[in-house]
Amino acid sequence: MSVISGPPGPRPEAVFDNVGGPLLLLWGEEDTVTPLDGPVAKFLKAAVDSRPDTEFVVLPGETPTVTVDQIWKFWHPGLFA
Questions:
Q1: What are the residues facing 27 on neighbouring strands?
Q2: pLDDT (mean) for 8-21
Q3: Burial 38-56, CB ≥16 within 10 A → b, else e
Q4: CA torsion, points 51, 15, 45, 66, in degrees to nearest 10?
Q5: Is residue 28 part of a domain?
Q6: What range defines the domain where residue 47 resides?
Q7: How far is C-alpha 3 from the geometric centre of its chain's CA atoms?
Q8: Residue 27: which residues within 8 A CB-CB, separation 6 or more?
Q9: Tally of domains within the chain
Q10: Is 67 helix (H, G, I), strand (E, B) or coil?
């Protein structure tokens, strides 16, 4: 897969400030490629504090339904009040 074996691209630290608008960061609890306790996740979790329109959500296991639910809650918070 080119995702794993291709060039890594820029680091999140290099592009994070250029990303505008609301930002939802979904992270797999069992992600082994970019683990939750790794440097990228740590950077993004800390960066949430500097952006009021940003959320970092840890997804349990491999559940696509939970992913969709989190996206809906982020974009349509009034529906889940």
A1: 58
A2: 85
A3: eebbeebeebeeeeeebeb
A4: 90
A5: yes
A6: 22-80
A7: 17
A8: 34, 36, 41, 44, 56, 57, 58, 59
A9: 1
A10: helix
Question: Is this prediction's pTM over 0.85?
Answer: no
- With DSSP H G I counted as helix, E B as strand and the rest as coil, what are the percentages for the chain, rounded to 5? 50, 15, 35
**Residue 6: inside a domain, yes or no?**
no
Query: Any idea what DSSP says for residue 3?
Result: H
Count the residues in the chain: 81
Domain assignment present for 59: yes
Residue ranges of E strands in 1-81: 23-28, 54-59
Amino acid identity of residue 28, one-letter, is G
pLDDT 10s digits, 23-65: 889 888 888 888 999 998 999 999 888 888 889 999 887 677 7
Please report whether residue 62 resides in a domain.
yes
Characterize 14-33 residue by residue with b for buried, 16 or more Cβ atoms within 10 angstroms of its Cβ, and e for exposed. eebeeeeeebeeebbeeeee
